[in-house]
């Protein structure tokens, strides 16, 4: 029998940093203060059509020509977890983002003549924004959000009033929404659901910042999210998913499909629509003849109308403040 | 029949029908209604009785002067204005060539009031822009963010156009009042100074002192007494 030259494998490679010779164990961190069960997971305590409260304020960044800051109300489970901490990990996160508009300013020398306003959008997660650290270079999902945001806003801006100029719109996400409850393993319906909430927040904040910069718009644009959710732990075949507005993915066991719209309430127009997931199995209430798609879009529009009421009031407040100060 | 106008509008807010008003700046028309397109106070400019036109609705970018006068005087007004054809601008000369002078536009003056201290724009304090010494090393970066314009040799003055010598009209660092004649190409607007009230409004001499105008083509240094040729704007 041939004996393998074991000695060769054990030889050190001097061009690399070698690992320790023995085996290592990954460190295990305690996530729970005491033994916990699935009962600790975040739960939705709002009505299906009840939205989270939104904080929105414009003009907070003096060096920008327009700016806004937006926060969603944290889940009720977060407040409960602070009262009686069972886990070291917060059960849910709520969106916080800042938006700046620079311009209108001249286009760079290399750019071709443009009779219209050139809109550039950048969306960037802060490294600490999500549970998983984001790098400093924008990744595919951040670029994707930027493109969605640009289409949402382009339809609302009156671009021909600003020839030969461009605006730069930059959004920094300080706290992102979770895609699922943090302890859940990704299931078959899993997707980046949190990104849709982030986009809705981005649209609302960006519209406020553009209005703050006095860029001509047809209307304010508000973002809204609706989702078909099945919350039952048992087999989902018995109970059909339900339509909920402004879903926090951390509060639900399984999101079947979700929809985000950018909506102009005064004109009743949608500038951006993004549907994700499978809504074919959903059954609506009796007497509701709509398809699940239509119900999702209608729900998202309703959520956007709710966000619009905050957006309009925040802008009126900032205009009155400049008049009176 | 006149409905009351809201004091403050936000984009997309319906302000009135085109049957009663005509649409001014800051508004747009959708299905024969006038909607606000920016956020700000709503102003109805009264109709001219002799022409029989409707009164014009506009959404103001600035706080009306009456309200502003009552408030604190030191607050900074900021709004965005683009140069348009026929608008009067203040610009700083950045380069003088044989056939043209390159300037960067500092302020677009409002039609209503021609006094730059009344309506600052471009996010800056105009008084400080105008009085700061021209310092090419310092201003390179900010000039990139301003709109660039050209004054061609034939647009400098209305008479004796072929005898114009650009070096005797403008120097780098001078502040020019000009009128926009064209949006131009991708990079430059085109300005003219071929009017009595257009031309150099502020200039420093070779010695570095602020000069005063003595004629339409000469400015003088109050310290050394030396005169320098310029295309001078008529002082008000």
UniProtKB/TrEMBL annotation, chain A:
One of its GO terms (molecular function) is RNA binding. This is Exoribonuclease phosphorolytic domain-containing protein. Pfam families: RNase_PH. It is found in: Cytoplasm; Nucleus. GO terms for cellular component: cytoplasmic exosome (RNase complex); nuclear exosome (RNase complex); nucleolus. GO terms for biological process: nuclear mRNA surveillance; poly(A)-dependent snoRNA 3'-end processing; rRNA catabolic process; rRNA processing; U4 snRNA 3'-end processing. InterPro entries: ExoRNase_PH_dom1, PNPase/RNase_PH_dom_sf, Ribosomal_Su5_D2-typ_SF, RNase_PH. Belongs to the RNase PH family. Residues 50-215 form the Exoribonuclease phosphorolytic domain. Keywords: Cytoplasm, Exosome, Nucleus, RNA-binding, rRNA processing. The keyword Disulfide bond does not apply.
From TrEMBL, chain B:
It is found in: Nucleus, Nucleolus. Residues 8-43 form the Exosome complex component N-terminal domain. InterPro entries: Csl4 (IPR039771), EXOSC1_C (IPR019495), Exosome_cplx_N_dom (IPR025721), NA-bd_OB-fold (IPR012340). The keyword Transcription does not apply. GO terms for molecular function: RNA binding. It comes from the Eukaryota. GO terms for cellular component: cytoplasm; nuclear exosome (RNase complex); nucleolus. Residues 82-182 form the Exosome complex component CSL4 C-terminal domain. Keywords: Cytoplasm, Exosome. This is Uncharacterized protein. It comes from Penicillium frequentans.
């Amino acid at each position: 029998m041939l004996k393998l030259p074991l000695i060769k494998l054990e030889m050190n490679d001097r061009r690399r940093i070698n690992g320790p010779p023995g085996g290592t164990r990954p460190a295990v961190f305690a996530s729970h203060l005491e033994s916990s069960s699935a009962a600790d997971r975040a739960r939705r305590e709002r009505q299906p059509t009840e939205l989270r409260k939104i904080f929105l304020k414009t003009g907070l960044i003096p060096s920008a020509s327009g700016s806004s800051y937006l926060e969603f109300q944290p889940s009720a489970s977060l407040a409960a977890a602070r009262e009686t901490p069972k886990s070291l990990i917060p059960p849910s996160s709520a969106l916080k983002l800042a938006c700046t508009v620079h311009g209108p300013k001249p286009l760079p020398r290399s750019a071709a003549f443009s009779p219209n306003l050139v809109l550039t959008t950048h969306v960037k997660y802060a490294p600490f924004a999500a549970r998983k650290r984001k790098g400093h270079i924008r990744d595919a999902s951040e670029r994707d959000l930027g493109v969605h945001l640009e289409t949402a806003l382009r339809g609302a801006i009156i671009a021909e009033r600003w020839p030969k100029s461009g605006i730069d719109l930059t959004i920094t996400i300080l706290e992102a929404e979770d895609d699922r409850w943090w302890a859940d393993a990704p299931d078959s319906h899993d997707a980046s659901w949190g990104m849709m909430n982030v986009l809705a927040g981005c649209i609302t904040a960006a519209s406020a910042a553009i209005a703050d910069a006095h860029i001509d718009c047809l209307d304010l644009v508000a973002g809204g999210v609706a989702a078909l959710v099945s919350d039952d732990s048992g087999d989902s075949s018995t109970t059909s998913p339900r339509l909920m507005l402004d879903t926090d993915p951390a509060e639900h066991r399984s999101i079947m499909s979700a929809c985000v719209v950018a909506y102009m309430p005064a004109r009743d127009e949608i500038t951006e629509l993004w549907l994700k997931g499978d809504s074919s199995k959903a059954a609506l209430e009796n007497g509701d003849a709509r398809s699940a798609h239509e119900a999702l879009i209608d729900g998202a529009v309703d959520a956007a109308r709710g966000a619009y009421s905050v957006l309009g009031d925040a802008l009126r407040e900032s205009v009155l403040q400049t008049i009176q100060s | 029949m006149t409905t009351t106008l809201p004091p403050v509008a936000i984009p997309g807010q319906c302000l009135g029908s085109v049957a009663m008003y005509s649409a001014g700046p800051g508004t747009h028309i959708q299905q024969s209604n006038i909607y606000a397109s920016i956020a700000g106070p709503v102003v109805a400019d009264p109709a001219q009785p002799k022409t029989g036109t409707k009164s014009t609705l506009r959404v103001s970018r600035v706080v009306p002067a009456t309200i502003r006068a009552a408030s604190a005087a030191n607050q900074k007004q900021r709004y965005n204005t683009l140069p348009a054809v026929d608008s009067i601008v203040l610009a700083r000369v950045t380069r003088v060539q044989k056939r043209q002078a390159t300037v960067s536009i500092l302020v677009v003056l409002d039609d209503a009031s021609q006094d730059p201290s009344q309506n600052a724009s471009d996010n800056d304090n105009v008084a400080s822009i105008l009085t700061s010494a021209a310092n090419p090393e310092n201003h390179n970066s900010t000039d990139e963010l301003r709109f660039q314009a050209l004054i061609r040799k034939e647009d400098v003055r209305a008479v004796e156009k072929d005898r114009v010598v650009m070096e005797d009209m403008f120097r780098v660092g001078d502040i020019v009042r000009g009128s926009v004649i064209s949006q131009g190409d991708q990079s430059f607007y085109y300005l003219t100074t071929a009017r009595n009230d257009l031309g150099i409004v502020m200039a420093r001499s070779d010695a570095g002192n602020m000069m005063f105008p003595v004629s339409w083509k000469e400015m003088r240094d109050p310290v050394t007494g030396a005169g320098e040729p310029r295309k001078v704007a008529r002082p008000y």
